[in-house]
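Let us work through a complete example step by step.
Step 1: write down the sequence.
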Amino acid sequence: MNAPDTLEQATVIVDAEASVPAMTAQIVRYDIPGPSAAALSFPGKYLVNMCLTPRPIDARACYRAHWGAHRFERLGDIFLIPAGEELFIKGGSIRQASLLCNLDAERIHEIVGETLHWTDQQLATTIDITSASIRALLFRIAGEVRHPGLAAERMLEFLSGELAIELGRYCIEVHERPIGGGLAGWRLRLIDERLAAEGAAPTLGELASLCNLSVRQLTRGFRVSRGSSIGHYVEQRRMEAAKRLLIAGESVKTIAFGMGFASPSSFTFAFRRATGISPSQFRHRQARVAS
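Step 2: predict the structure and record it as tokens.
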């Protein structure tokens, strides 16, 4: 990792770590009290970062060597830095936990059967990976690192191979997407702004009207732009908002009705489906991060 451009009194604690020949996985806690900026690169390694607690809303990232110094995109729950690429990240204060997976690039290319090449179009999709299969796999890795089970090393070897294959598929899938047909940047920003607002989730009709498109145009264009269904994206963004409310101390009941769920149990079901844990388990883990 390159030296940070600016990091004020940063504290980084590794809570758990596990290594196999092709991958090192860590559960890491960050505490950065002020504005921060860092240039990250990992020669010979792929880095996958999945936040286990909410990522700051103002976190942004830029591949400066490809885009110049002024194009910054929102940093999602999961991001990837391909081997040899440098990602510049900036944002405000941070107190969060993340799963970090460093994977050997040669091993990835060996498993997928080819050397992966990342174009500008593909790099843009690495900043916010919304793949449900990659997310589910990372949660399995995080669980194995935090609480190793029977034959834990062998299990991590299998999981590292699965992750290599999923990353290869992701790269190739993005490369094969049509260049045209996606949503304009201003439409994507309108969607993100609406999802950041309080209250019940918007309907597809509302989002389509906001973007001055038909529902069909919206759903097709969104999948081209973000590589996931708009329904899945909406759910993930709602759960990010729910995480922040849980951290702020709001009750499950208040959050459920405030976000338009029919009952606290329906909110709990949606939260567990999206994150792999219940709201109470999430709050308990966040208390450990803050301690």
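Step 3: interpret the result. DSSP finds twelve helices and nine strands in the chain.
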